[in-house]
Amino acid sequence: MKKIILILLAVLALNQADAQGKKTEKATFGMGCFWCTEAIFQRLKGVISVKSGYEGGALSNPTYEEVCTGATGHAEVLEITYNPMVISYDDLLEVFWKSHDPTTLNRQGADSGTQYRSVVFYHSAEQKSLAEKYKAELNKTNAYGKKVVTAIEAAKPFYIAENYHQNYFNKNGSEPYCRLVIQPKIEKLEKIFKAKLKN
Fold first, then answer.
1. Residue 4 falls within a domain, yes or no?
2. H helix or E strand, kind and range, residue 35
3. Neighbours of 26 (CB within 10 A)
4. May I ask which residue range the UniProt record assigns to the signal sequence (predicted)?
5. Per the domain annotation, does 199 fall within a domain?
6. Catalytic residues
7. Residues 64-84: pLDDT tens digits?
8. Pairwise CA distance, residues 185 & 199, whole Å
């Protein structure tokens, strides 16, 4: 009987460890046009899915056209589902801050408006703390030569963008916009974060 109990306990422990290993978490970042940034996070080890969408505004179920006016208050964001046993939230923050200009208010490159703002929508107190700590360190060390203006806000309802926005670079890589604007970001990612990329 003792043996059976020990075997059952061992099996339960293995099942629990297996369940913990499969646990996923979410991270939500706004860093300009989601076409430009979706492809970056899709390539990271431990990232399970990346959805382009809208967050932080007042209107329910906004359309791309409505968000583009800047009147809804939404930002173009990525909702990232990841395995924290493979990639940490800290790692995701590092990629986030090194993949866009967090010092320009409501602007990324040629795109301007509140929908292109730099923002972290946190899903837990731990994510909030890590994002605030990272931002404070960037400002303390004057990492960009200018103040980081990234907003750090509690997650709000996420609205997935229209189908044609999803997986944009992978579907449209030969388009001029993809080659001129997105491809250089991918190349930068491959140089800086080579060890973090999927094979």
1. no
2. helix 34-42
3. 18
4. 1-19
5. no
6. 33
7. 999 999 999 999 999 999 999
8. 18
